[in-house]
Amino acid sequence: MAAGVCGPTPLVFRLHEGAPELVREVLLERGWEEYDEQEQEEGDWNLYWRTSAFHNSDYENILPWQRLNHHPKTVGITRKDCLARNLKRMRGTFGSGLYNFSPTTFILPNDYTRFLAEYTKHRLKNGGRSGYWICKPVDLSRGRGIFIFEDIRDLVYDSSVIVQRYISNPLLISGYKFDLRIYVCVKSFQPLTIYMHQEGLVRFATEKYNLSSLDNLYSHLTNTSINKFGPFYTTDKERVGQGCKWTMSKFRCFLHSQGINELFLWQKINNIVTLTLLTIAPSVPSSPNSVELFGFDILIDAKYKPWLLEVNYSPALTIDCQVDVTVKKVLLNDLVDLMNYKSMDSVRQRGYLKQKYKRPCYLGSQSLQSPVLLLPKSMCEHHPANKKSHSIHSTFSDSMRYFPSVEINRIRSARNSVAGNRKTRPVLSQMTEAIQWSEVTDVESEFDDRDLSSLVSPWQASRQPAGGCCKLPAIHIQKTPKFPWDPKSQDKSTPPLRVGDFILTFPFNEVTLKASWDKLNVKTAVHEVHKLISQLASQLASGCSHKQKRGREDELDRCKEKKDFGSLFWGPTNPPLLSECHLGKGYVGTS
Ligand code: ADP
């Protein structure tokens, strides 16, 4: 086969049982192929996606071209009781003034006596009324097992639960309660690198909020898994519309229409996300090939204070309505972009051999001294290359290390759109040829950075402003995002400020950048967040929105000039007017 014809093999994804269908759909659209356990060798994949946790061995055996969709040991924030415990610890260390974004929580049965004391205190103070409480099983999700109560005699539980102060004055839209699902990607825990997605979901209860019917879950819980079975799900509800979801863009338009300075709200949410992740960051083992998508659930009260309700491990990527399609497809594409695949990752075995990675890479009994050839199982034994592996090893040139970082998956996708989808995996003869160094170089030069600018992948081309009209304006676009893939490398450059709609929220200045390298300095990071909150508070107190806006723009300009961080304040700099938002009927998707 002529040099360059074969090209790099497509990137390969591996889905564990129960992984969201949308992941498959998005990756296939990008030109990836699905891993076939029967046909392919163990390590012949680039992304392994699981809804549940990986085993330790998955982290230990990771190969350089592979990524996993979870970091190890993040349960400290994703289980309700662990989150409560960790936030309490941080309150003890840094004060309740800063860690004041989570409702008072007790873990039962252990904290029962303390809960009783608090309950009684409130009753005495409020003329016999204790206020409202919510009880949630610690390890369930999707609203299962949750109930709200006022009278302690209604508190009945038979498993470990948390009892939390119920935020009884939520912000309502036309009488409907809602919460926000914020998507957060932790690109790395060491150094701590956090991105927040500009889009997200607003999830509504489908019956009007009413404190005199605490057992009406359609009025008090905002989980889609509950509300989609409610009697009013398909009804065209005042302002909310049909269904139970809005895009975040639509919500921003709504806030704008109400004259709310949403930037402060977003910044407060940023801070909540950062402070929460700081609780576990030092204890998460380094796993450079992992990326994690968390779903932060935030409730806003009538005074516009955001509260953290919980952090979701594997946030739902199911599609219930058009809003889900709009938000989650873009989200997943941006997530894959953040995973930073390089050309070399698509030439799995060749890249591995050439890179001579120092990290232990286990693949059965093979080691770097006996090069690994990831061929289809059925062909492996007869493959001539296996017999002369040492000579193959020596055909690689050192220059192979310096492959340009190319978004190969998008390129592949774009190429497929021109040449038609090539579904079949390369046959043995192609793979034999592909292992020759000369071809690798040809392939690489075929897809250099210049090619990128002229190719637009199908998903990118079809990418719509979420919600159809409320385009979130770009704040910063770094043309060629550069991110140190290996956190142990000497290259301590700034992570890209923006990847798709993911905006860098930590580190957010030079101090936090330095604090995040080597051993994370939590104290310094928390101190910087504190400073930020104080600045915000004083700006709020000054109460001049125009000046604030101007100040923020100046800040961004300064950031640009200094090539400093611009993600301090994120959110639309110039949100569209309400008249441009088509808030009316038909805007909210339904299933
Ligand atoms: P789950 O993991 O089961 O979804 P959540 O903690 O997210 O549990 O709670 C489910 C829903 O209950 C939330 O989406 C929100 O509408 C409501 N909720 C939970 N905690 C509170 C609270 N402290 N105050 C008010 N509403 C709450």
UniProtKB/TrEMBL annotation:
The record's Pfam families line, in alphabetical order, gives: TTL
InterPro entries reported for this sequence: TTL/TTLL_fam (IPR004344)
**What superkingdom heads the lineage?**
Eukaryota
One example of a Gene Ontology biological process annotation: microtubule cytoskeleton organization
The protein's matches in PROSITE patterns, at most eight in alphabetical order, are given as:
TTL
GO cellular component terms given for this protein: ciliary basal body
Provide the alphabetized UniProt keywords.
Answer: ATP-binding, Ligase, Nucleotide-binding
* Molecular function terms from GO: ATP binding; tubulin binding; tubulin-glutamic acid ligase activity
Q: Sorted alphabetically, which SUPFAM superfamilies does this protein's record hold?
A: Glutathione synthetase ATP-binding domain-like (SSF56059)
- Protein name, entry field: Tubulin tyrosine ligase-like family, member 2
